[in-house]
Every structure is written in C-alpha cells, then in structure tokens.
User: Fold these one by one.
Assistant:
Number 1:
Amino acid sequence: MKLIAANWKSNPDTAKTAERLALAEDYEGVIIIPPFQYLERVRSVLKHASLGAQNVFWENGGPFTGEVSPSQLKNLSVSFVIAGHSERRAYLGETDDMINKKIKAALSEGLQVILCVGEPIQIRKDGIRSAKDFITNQIRYDLRGVKRSDAKKVIITYEPIWAISTSQNAEPDIPEEAAEICAYIKNLVNVRGVIYGGSVNAKNAKEFLGRDDIDGALVGGESLKPKEFQKIVSAATPLV
Ligand code: PGA
C-alpha cells in the first residue's frame, strides 16, 4: 500500500475548517499533518488516517520558548513528524545538525520520521548525478548515528525544491527521473519507504504513484482541496 501524507503547512485558519478537511481526507494509508494547534481536534475525528506533526524539537521539556517536544507529540497520539522540510531549511536556516538532533529525539520517543530531502535548481541544472550527490550528503548527515533498526521507522520524501508548488518559478518534475532518484535513495539507505513530494496533484498522481520505486506522496497545496486530494488517494489505492 502506498502512503499519502497531507502536509497542510500553515493552513487552514480555523479549527472548524481543519476538522472538515480531516473528515474528508480520513482514509487508510493517509497521514494527516495539520499545524500543531489542530492536532487534538483532528485526532478526535480521524478513524482511518494516521496523525503527523510538521515539526518537533530535540529536547523533552525545558526553557525552549515556542518549541514542541517529542513527548508532547507522543502524548497527543501523533505517529509521524516531519524533519528537514526545505521550507524550514531555507527560510528558517534549519541546519542538517539540527535536523539530525530532531530525528534522533523523535525516534527515541517512538515517533516515526518523515525526512525531507531534495536539491535546489542550481544543483539540478548540473545534472541528475549532482542532484544524487547533494541528496546523499543530506541523508548521510541527517541520519548520522541513527541505528539500522530505527532507520526502518524513517520515511524519506524526495522533494526537489524547484518542483514544490510554492517555490518561485516552480517547474514540473519528470516522473521517470523522480522514480530514478527514489530508487537511488532506496539503494543508499534501508528506510521504511521513499515517497515523492513536488506538486503532486490529481492529474499527475498516477504517473508518480504508479511507479514501483515511489512508495507514496507528500502532498502540500492539493491537500487543502478535498476533492483533488481524494483523487490522489484513489490513484494510489482505489477508494471504496
Ligand atoms: P506541494 O508541497 O505539494 O504544494 O508541492 C509539497 C511539500 O512542500 O510538502
């Protein structure tokens, strides 16, 4: 079964809308990843989907204003946390060292991790080999010190920055090349799965999700549109 993660980012504006969205996206194999403030409300309505958080800190408690700890998330029945999203790497200056600490803290609390990696356009312009080298460095650094048994609780999302819908001058990726890079990542590390994120929508979902080397999708923009999102889910598993 493929995994479809709905990364709502900093949306929607009200808990009521979040609840409606969660109900419309509550399918087996789906991970709903709302902003922190809606976690409890979303959890209370989900019957089939799993719950994820968009970020996590590396300490459990202490003087860390604004941070959310792994144990707090665990106690809210969160199963997955995102680490390494390119938006946080780029706009908040999150480093591989910080990402590595988050991943280790989350795993030691029993949370599963969705680690995002992906190259900027300048790297990709040098060819697919450069992109693979870039991603290799990210993965090596981000998973440094993670035990083999814990790596099985990590899902890697390949998200080329230039293909994410909100990137400046976003460009569509070529599914065949996305699959080639996902296959490359699978050979590099033994993780639970490798999924793809980069403007996955109802129209292109089959082309990405139909490939054996792509274990699912992390969906941003289109996860805020229930009808489109349902079509993406049904491209992975026929909806009953
Ligand atoms: P997108 O976002 O589907 O809007 O491209 C994916 C992501 O950034 O997680």
Number 2:
Amino acid sequence: MLNLEAEANLIAAAFSAAENAYAPYSDYPVGAALLFDDGAVITGCNVENASYGLALCAETVAVAKALGEGRRGGLTAVAVVGLKADAEPITPCGRCRQVLNEVAALGATDPLVLCVSKDGVRRVTLSALLPHAFGPGHLG
Ligand code: THU
C-alpha cells in the first residue's frame, strides 16, 4: 500500500518527467515514475523519432534507466500521466506492461500502477493489467 503523500509525490514526479517528453509527432507527452522499495524514484518520458515506429514510451524509458542503473526488482509502484489525457486516464500500452513486468518479476512484486487523468487516479495492479504474464521465470 502507498499512502496518499507517497502517491502524490510519485504522480508529481511523473508530471515533471512529462515536461521533458520528446513528442513532436504525436504531440502527446507522457511521463512515468517508478517507485522502488528503497524509496528511489526513476522517471522516464516518451521519446519519439522521425521514423515514427521507433517511438519509445515513457514507461519503457523509465524501466531501461532503472535496469541500466543496476536495479533488479523492488518495484513497488508506477505512475503514468499523459499531459493531453482528458477524463479517461492513460494506461500503459501492452508493450509497456510487458516491459514493466520484467523488473517486477525480478523482485517478485506486483506494483500498483497509478493511471492519472486531470479528473483523478485509477489504481490498478500490474497483474490485473497483464494477467498470466510471461516473464524471466518461464525461461528456466
Ligand atoms: N505512449 C507512452 O509513452 N506510454 C504509453 O503507455 C502509451 C503511449 C506514448 C507513445 C507515443 O509517443 C505517444 O504516447 C502517442 O502514442
């Protein structure tokens, strides 16, 4: 469980990250913030490309940063914000659910995902977003 102050801090980190989004093609800036069990927060924003299909989502960038800094598990919560999202909160795309699952599975956690819109927060677990996930454990 995450208290309301921790939730608000994580959401604020995701909003700050979205300010750095490189999204000139979609004009849909996204920010993500990952909270780890030692209190660390690692953020990411979407990074698009003139070759449109190469766009990287905010959650994927954040996970790459976390793994690249040596983190292996301990993921307790994720906040995702879309600056253009209206009433319907953004939820991680299918690929990002799988990418998030990798770092979650490494530490056997089921992170809370905070999907943020201007009207509120949808709280859902990663396992609810990606049931019966394929993960490192399947590789033996
Ligand atoms: N996007 C994300 O960053 N995360 C998601 O979970 C969904 C989509 C980005 C990709 C692209 O740069 C823009 O949003 C529009 O799809």
